[in-house]
Amino acid sequence: MTFFTHFGRYLLMLKGMFTRPENLKMYWKEFMHQCNDIGIGSLGIVSIISVFIGAVSAVQTSYQLVSPLIAPETIAQIVRDTVILEFAPTLVCIVLAGVIGSKIASELGNMRVSEQIDALEIMGINTKAYLILPKITAALLTIPLLVIISMVLGIWGGRLAGAASGILSADTFDRGLLLKFIPYNVTFALIKSYTFAFIISSIPAYYGYYVKGGALEIGRSSTKSVVVSCIMLLFADYVLTQMLLTH
Amino acid sequence: MIEFKNIRKSFDEKVVLDDVSHVMETGKCNLIIGTSGSGKTVLQKCLVGLFEPDSGEILYDGISFTEMDDDGRKALRQQIGMLFQGSALFDSMTVEQNVMFPLDMFAKMNSSEKLKRVNEVLDRVNLEGANKKFPAEISGGMKKRVGIARAIVLNPKYLFCDEPNSGLDPQTSMVIDKLILEITKEFNMTTVINTHDMNSVMEIGENILYMFEGHKEWTGNNEEIIFSKNEKLNQFIFASKFLQDAKDMRMLEAKGIIADDRNMEDMLNNGEEIK
Asked: A52, A78, A154, B201: which has the highest count of C-beta atoms within 10 A?
């Protein structure tokens, strides 16, 4: 199948999601279920990754900034900006592409192969709207929240590592955090996280929904969906950075 | 009643259904039989709208399904129940939640009314007490019965069953067949069953469509099938020596030479010669 066939079918899948819900209450229930799965379910891994990213970032920055002419507050500034601009939205979303993406693709793939999607269709339910839309909307709601949590924990991790290893005191780190803070960076990170949330939920949904075959194909489509999501995510990262951060 | 006329369906170059027409009658078990790859599953999927036929017309009680818009199909599908080959139960839901799902989605009932209805249909398929079990915790036969319960919970007018006996032992198969037949009569449904289980053909085949390489080869019922002269049908139905013997027995019975199995046993015990 060519790229254009996939892309056309992907667009048709997205278009097919927008119909009047058969029962709004059931759709809401499914949306909340997905919010729990995607948001709460990923909170643990996101927290762990974020703290360590921040910590490593602080230690590595201090390792590279050995000049006595550079104020130690700069380390906090660098940790803050790298975490907000890149590590929290991009790295966390790449991890989430693996965690959430493979889950979405294998869940839908299994439903397709075991005829559960057909069973829903026979009942008169728009399966694209009932199965895919809640996943995408839940990702759009929870992933930016996870990214905000990641920013906070990442910076906290840097502060902790800086103080623990004697690189800079907590007070110096706090002072550095307030130096030349650009609020637009947070807006930029949120724009990225919305875009990435859409990518890492809709692409695996496409691969899972249209899977054909058996268990082997479910595994293959799950892997493929994660790979494609990661590539698209990195591509989108570059395009957004180019568009929104260059003067 | 479901009527389909001149249904044709192909995948790329391969023609899977070629000009198939038939009428599925109300209040009867209508069987689609045929070897693997004969097109019976594709035909059934065309009938329920999971596949679009390339040409031809499908009529549900005189209303064209093929020309219906999405809203019309959605409305009609609420009158269709389907039992899938692998039961297609939702793994993460209990038996009760599986059966309640169509009610949650479409019925305007309160929780206690829904629960009452679920228990009614579970009782009807002899699954009392299995409410809180998950699909992974029940046997294949029970899964089929849950599938039937879910299919009939909204009182459908049309019931489709895709190989309801696959993977079941002969005794459980008989129970499922009997259940489908009883439900069909009780609710006066148009039941369409896709099978290659010969026991089902003989027991519940009130209106049989035999498919061969994508076209209609023979139609009739379980009485007529015994006396059919159609060579392809006979090769398919009476493929084994055992089934051929069973056919001979039925023919002897029909001709009044023997009354039943006991009679033949008596004849053998008395040393009578059976020709």
From this structure: A154
Mutation target vs B (from A36, A110, A123, A126; most B CBs, 10 A cutoff): A123
Side-chain-side CA neighbours of residue B158 (13 Å): 21
Q: Which of A122, A126, A131 to mutate to test the interface with B (most CBs of B within 10 A)?
A: A122
Find the residue in A nearest to B48 (Cα): A122
Instruction: Give the position of tokens 């009392």.
Output: B128
- Determine the residue of chain B that is closest to A118 in CA distance: B50
pLDDT at B241: 77
Our CA angle for A218, A145, A175, nearest 5°, is: 135
B82 in contact with chain A, both atoms CB, cutoff 8 A: yes
Instruction: Give the nearest chain A residue to B152 (CA atoms).
Output: A123
Total number of domains in chain B = 1
Q: Which amino acid is at A123?
A: M
Query: If residue B263 lies in a helix (H) or strand (E), which one and from where to where?
Result: helix B261-269
Predicted pLDDT at B156? 93
Evaluate whether A218 touches A113 at the Cβ level (below 8 Å).
yes
- Tell me the whole-structure pTM to 2 decimals: 0.87
Q: Kindly report, residue by residue over B120-169, the tens digit of the pLDDT.
A: 999 988 888 889 999 999 998 899 999 999 999 999 999 999 988 888 88
Which residues in chain A belong to E strands, given as ranges? none
- Residues in B closer than 8 angstroms to A27, CB to CB, are none
Residue B175, C-beta contacts closer than 8 angstroms, at least 6 positions apart: B141
With bands split at pLDDT 50, 70 and 90, how would you rate the model's confidence at A70? confident
Contact A49, A150 (CB under 8 A): yes
A&B contacts, CB < 8 Å: 53
The maximal CA–CA distance of chain A, rounded, in angstroms, is 72
In chain A, % of residues over pLDDT 70: 100
**Per the domain annotation, does B93 fall within a domain?**
yes
Q: Token pair of B43, please?
A: 């035909």
What's the domain range around B191?
A: 2-221
Residues B33, B134: Cα–Cα separation, whole Å: 32
C-alpha A157/C-alpha A58 separation (Å) is: 8
In a domain, B100, yes or no: yes
Place of tokens 């929870």: A142
Which CATH number covers residue B117?
3.40.50.300
What SS3 class is residue A219?
A: helix
Of the CA atoms within 13 Å of residue B159, those in its CB half-sphere come to 34
Band the pLDDT of B65: cuts 50, 70, 90: very high
Rounded Cα distance between B180 and B125, Å, is: 9
Q: Is residue B259 part of a domain?
A: no
Query: Is the ipTM above a cut-off of 0.90?
Result: no
> Which of B252 and B35 is assigned the larger pLDDT?
B35
* Residue bearing the bigger pLDDT, B114 or B260: B114
Are B48 and A123 in contact (CB < 8 Å)? no
